[in-house]
Amino acid sequence: MKQRWLISLTLVALLVVGCRKQAGSEAPASASSSVSASQQVETVNNDSLVQVTQQQDTVEVPSAKMGRPITNMVFVPEQYLKGGAERYPVLYLLHGADDNYMAWSNHVDLKQKATQYGMIIVCPDGQDSWYFDSPIDPKMQFETYVSKELIEYMDIHYRTIAKADKRAITGMSMGGHGALWLAWRHPDVFKHCGSMSGGVDITKFPDSWNIDKRLGKYASSRGVWATHSVASLVPMLKAGQNIIIDCGDRDFFFEVNMALHQALEAKGIAHDFTIRAGQHSWKYWEESLEKHLNFFKQALSGMPVKCNTSIVTRDKAARTTEVKKIETKKPEPQKDAPKPEVKKPETQQAPEVAPQPVEKEAA
Question: Comparing 332 with 53, which gets the higher pLDDT?
Fold first, then answer.
């Protein structure tokens, strides 16, 4: 009887061990905690996905860091609406100062762009944060918001490809600064980045766009301003990201963009750089966006991108297009030929030149 009892206990023990081994096929909690958030999102249950019924949507995403929700616009390709398991790369598109999350969609058909380039486009409301975490304002923590909280929300609720090499970020003016700031500080989150007319060195503009409300007065906080400027990140950069930067030759950010380009060249960081005719205006950014989208489409597909440098200002363009006059010999007059009548040149009044409109400076 005692022997049978021992045999029964042995069988029960073997069954328990077998069940534990089968359950042990999943990684233990201690191991899963070492996996990055983007890797964990790859296996997210489809029940958490948003039921998307239209290409454009306005989404409020809670920020634990700031203790408040932030509004964003999300644009998906037409093919996304068909459902299925297909996932898409994501472009985060940032606005400038004195603007909001609707700025880009007010000027560009982002639904069409999302469909054409086969990507999800997200426009967060960055307010006038300059997209860093303010050391003096706990309600302005937009580096954490965009690089972590918003990314996690999108990867959980939309069919994104949750990998750094399938994410791009760019923006104009303040958003250009923000895109480079976020990508260069978080290369594990963004593999591809760009800037259009970016305010890439804020130390040159100490009295503009409420930056002092985020960092303190420049006179007493020079070090803080310097360390929160994109230009200060160049010495720490490493090769590996795909970078595209451009600026207009009549832009008030022209000089800081040229300085950034030269610093990147000296550091040996490959980047596509363009200076072309243009001012700090939506006309310029609408044209720039197309160039950035083409650059990112190739980069997001995994194809190598070519980084070119093109610096053509209006003055330089005028010189290069100047045509030299060809001098020809005048025919000798025939003997005894009547002398041609010489008419006095008529004086013409110079046409009046209409004054050119002056564009409002905005970052």
Answer: 53
* Residue, of 141 and 43, whose pLDDT is higher: 141
Encoding tokens for residue 25? 């096929």
pLDDT of residue 300: 97
Whether 305 maps to a domain, the answer reads yes
Q: How far apart are CA 264 and CA 272, in angstroms?
A: 11
Res 132: pLDDT: 97
Within-domain flag for 356:
no
Parallel, antiparallel, or unpaired for β 68-75 and 90-94? unpaired
Residue pair 50/157 in contact (Cβ under 8 Å)? The answer is: yes
The total of structural domains in the chain comes to 1
Return the pLDDT at 319.
37
Cα–Cα distance measured from residue 55 to residue 52, given in angstroms and rounded to the nearest whole number: 8
Please write the tens of the pLDDT for every residue from 268-283: 999 999 999 999 999 9
Tell whether 30 is covered by a domain. Answer: no
Q: Where are the alpha helices (DSSP H) in the chain?
A: 2-23, 29-32, 37-41, 110-117, 142-144, 151-157, 174-185, 211-215, 222-227, 254-267, 282-300, 314-320
Q: What's 267's domain CATH number? A: 3.40.50.1820
167 half-sphere exposure, CB direction, 13 A CA radius: 27
**Domain extent for 79:** 37-315
Look at residue 293 in the predicted model and tell me its pLDDT.
98
Using a 10 angstrom Cβ sphere, with 0-12 exposed, 13-18 middle and 19 or more buried, the burial of residue 92 is buried
